[in-house]
Every structure is written in structure tokens, then in C-alpha cells.
User: What shape does this take?
Amino acid sequence: MSRLTGPLRGLTATVGALALLAACREQPAAQTVPAAPQAPAATPSAPAKAPAGAVGEAPAGFEALETVTPAGRTRFFVEIADNDAERERGLMFRKSLAPDRGMLFDFHTPREVAFWMRNTLIPLDIIYIRPDGTVLSIARNTTPLSEAPIPSGGPTLGVLELAGGRSAEIGLMPGDRIEHRMFKRD
Assistant: This one.
């Protein structure tokens, strides 16, 4: 009997592992996330279009702004934060932000700035903009409620906040342009 103990123990462990694998195969994973729908691939003769932006006239309290990328123009309606109190509050406490909306921070004179996500409940894309309207840098999908500073990386006149992931959807990159009355082009 002592000679069978080792092989029986190994056989029992193997059968138990196989039974566990079979049971797991029959049960769906507890945290299965459905795959995101895939956009159709662009054909070489038809470049991909940027997702649609805002249309019509800007509602009261908003101004129109356009991003200009190799994929095209996308229009947004933005709230303007141009004083200390408005810049300090920003998009704090908001539970959502429409894909065609945002907030534009006007610092009046170029300077290095850093933002944080204190009391901001949704992920944002933070776009730092030079005085001539070119994009200096982008912090994508920032972490809600984080107090970590997110620096501009150079002098900026304005900052555009959009819903997290939106800058990638429209193909916005550093060096692209933002068109709004506050940015002067030479």
C-alpha cells in the first residue's frame, strides 16, 4: 500500500486539476468585458474622417473653437475660464462632458502651468496651447481625483479640456492647431 500512495496522490491531483479546468471552461469569467465595436478600416482612396463635432450656433455661455489636424477640422463649443476663480474650479464636480463640449482656460500671458484632477470626477484630455494656437502637449485620459501635477512642458497661453479620449478620436497631436479668437497667428 505504501508503494501506491505516491502514484495515487499524483493521479488524484491530476484528476482534480482536470475537473477544475472543465468547470472553469463551462463558467463565464466574472469580469468579462465585451469588445469595443471596431470602426471600419479606411480604404487607401478614402481617408478616415474625424468624428463629428459641434454643429450650429454656440449656446449661451459657450464659444466655438476648432481643432485642425491632418484628419480635418473638428468644432467644439467651449466654456471660457478667464479669471482665477473660473480657472481654479474648471470642470470639477462634473459627472459628464459631451463629446462636442469642453472648457478653454485663458491665462492672458504665456506661462508654464500645471493642472491636477482634484475634485474632477471624469477623465479629461488636457491640451496645452501656445500663443499662436499650436498644440504644445497633451495629457490624455487623466486620472479622476488625482492631485498629481500635470505640467504643460513649456509656456502656454491656453489650455483646452475635452472628454477623456476625445483628442485621440480626432487625431489631435502636438503641433496641430487650435483656432479660437484668443490665439493670434502671425
